Amino acid sequence: MGGAVSAGEDNDDLIDNLKEAQYIRTEKVEQAFRAIDRGDYYLDGYRDSAYKDLAWKHGNIHLSAPCIYSEVMEALKLQPGLSFLNLGSGTGYLSTMVGLIIGPYGVNHGVELHKDVVEYARQKLDEFIKNSDSFDKFEFCEPAFVVGNCLEISTDSHQYDRIYCGAGVQKDHENYMKVLLKIGGILVMPIEDQLTQITRTGQSTWDSRNILAVSFAPLVQQSRAEGEKPDTVQLPPVTVRSLQDLSRIYIRRTLRNLTNQDSQGKGTVQRVPHKRKRRRCRRRRINTYVFVGNQLIPQMVESEEEEHAEEEQKEAAAEEEEERDIGDIEIIKQVNELREQILALPLPESLKAYLLYYREK
Fold it and tell me: Which residues form the domain of 93?
């Protein structure tokens, strides 16, 4: 499923195309998508297809099409502090984006059937925390993944504000999913080839709406011998953060706010090198004539010929205009300012490492 938007050259191109096609509609969802490079979740040798609007599967590792993830993120209506459960959490790509929005006081849990995929998701999460500069621009709710069948979750498990299921749900499992949701919560899952948003409005009342026609592989039901008990899945516990952890969150938030205020006070703007857009084939209309009966009728016909000269002229003019508009804007090298602030603190190295989440970069 996918192919609804044009292929991009990189992650930013992909997000631009998703915005243009109205799959991404809110700023917070856009920021989360831009912060995490989809290509980082592909195996080596397959990254060339990362920015196409297509699903990807290799063995047990699977990613849905970007347009699907966009609709899911928008439909979940995420807010800071919410609890989230990802059923069929896969590579952790979606859970990590969710973590950037719900923040450090949220809950972020995932259940995945395949042990090798959970290990892959944990590896990718560790790489994001330790190596990505995007991590320092957000307050993050780290996902916790467990191995198990999401149809065998313990009946005494806690409920969640937001739930997503990344596999096709049969009608007879719909109520099972709904029970995991808090009143006022939102569940997004594919039912009968429709991505569906379900809002729990009361103890036994629900509002449903179809979002998008989709095609998902169905949930796996494990076969068992007669009388054999299923392996009940225990979801991760919901725990109160330690004082140490709360201190790290507060210190990083304070430094981030000071850095942002300092940047605004200086009036400097960080500018990245201008990226040349791909030239698009321009259609132009030309006059031709056709015979209708005995009459010669003028008709406009579209031509696919590229207007090279005109296009290059416009690009050159746009670049000149941009240079004129720069004025006294300072062009500075992009740096991780939060990291620089922490490293400059008069603290023991071990405490600096803790504040940096033991980041390697």
Answer: 68-239
